[in-house]
Write a structure and sequence with these properties.
Layout (H helix, E strand, L loop, with lengths): L3 H13 L2 H22 L4 H6 L10 E5 L2 E5 L2 E2 L3 E2 L2 E3 L8 E2 L1 H18 L4 E3 L22 E5 L10 H6 L20 H11 L4 E6 L1 H10 L10 E3 L6 E6 L22 H15 L24 H7 L2
Parallel strand pairs: 5-7, 9-10
Antiparallel strand pairs: 1-2, 3-6, 4-5, 8-11, 9-11
């Protein structure tokens, strides 16, 4: 688990920046960070995979694990669909295993019925060949993870500038102990519950404050909440993770959830740690900062990822 100081660094800026300014500054900073990461570690796996702009022309396979792997034969989720729009197009992360693309298209088609929304705004999936990313996620490496915004899709089409700079809506309350009632609606619970009911979905990740609302609104049947796990961030979107496709030996899945609905002491602990990380972060230790850990090397990935990387 990440240290409290690391959590504070991740969460405190989100609590302090205005939403509109955060979207623009994040887009600019991300581009600079990508370039700096390539310059600093040109041979790191994230640099090699992060510069690939198209998929490997291979049979579709998720290779390795969600946070240590790659993706062969990726499919692209079209940036526009009848009931979805892809956001942050400059990242080129609307790729996934065909099973993920098929699932997201089906889910989006069902969203107007489930929620009354026009559709979904889809955030990061995977890079064209999966692998570690230059910015952001530790997971999303094998084409089976997708971030779906909790902001309903507008009925009109967003232009490219809007897709890059439009801020997502923060669903967490200002004290980060529950949801913001002006933003969170019963439709959010219905959507996440519908995703949890899909057998192909292995996990759903949400901010602890959002899980508080889900536990409260679930009613008597909380069994579906076993798949819904709290995690830092994830207050603007929820994270869908599919299980490994049947018979795909190259894919390393997670064990099925067997830890109950997670609505008791476990969730309370997450809430307290998050609150303290934002509002009472530990003071930095005196002395020089430790050197950053080198990023993941290509050798740390499954051997098949080398072929994915060089494939045309």
């Amino acid at each position: 688990m990440r240290s409290i100081s690391r959590i504070a660094a991740l969460l405190a800026p989100l609590a302090l920046l205005p939403a509109a300014g955060r979207a623009q500054s994040t887009a600019d900073q991300e581009a600079k960070t990508r370039a700096a990461n390539i310059a600093a570690w040109p041979d790191a796996a994230r640099s090699l995979f992060g510069q690939k702009t198209g998929p490997a022309n291979m049979q579709a396979r998720a290779i390795g694990s969600y946070a240590r792997g790659c993706l062969a034969g990726a499919a692209e989720l079209p940036v526009d669909g009848p009931s979805w729009q892809v956001m942050r197009l400059n990242r080129n992360r609307n790729w996934g295993h065909p099973a993920l693309v098929d699932y997201l298209e089906k889910l989006a088609r069902d969203v107007p019925r489930i929620t009354g929304w026009a559709g979904l705004l889809v955030g990061d999936m995977s890079q064209p060949r999966g692998g570690p990313m230059l910015t952001g996620h530790a997971s999303h490496q094998i084409g089976l993870d997708a971030d779906v915004w909790l902001t309903p899709m507008p009925r009109g089409r967003l232009d490219r500038s809007q897709r890059e700079n439009m801020p997502a809506v923060n669903m967490a309350r200002s004290d980060w102990r529950d949801v913001e009632p002006r933003n969170w609606t019963p439709a959010h619970t219905r959507l996440i519950r519908a995703v949890a009911a899909e057998p192909k979905v292995e996990r759903i990740f949400v901010n602890p404050a959002l899980k508080v609302a889900l536990c409260r609104e679930a009613g008597a049947d909380k069994s579906w909440l076993e798949k819904v796990r709290p995690i830092w961030g994830h207050n603007y979107h929820f994270h869908i993770r599919l299980a490994c496709p049947a018979g795909m030996a190259s894919c390393q899945g997670q064990e099925p959830p067997n830890f109950g609905d997670g609505c008791g002491a476990e969730l309370s602990g997450w809430i307290e740690r998050q609150h303290n990380a934002i509002f009472n972060p530990p003071k930095p230790k005196p002395g020089p900062k430790p050197k950053p850990k080198p990023p993941m090397s290509l050798d740390a990935l499954p051997p098949e990822c080398r072929q994915v990387l060089v494939s045309r």
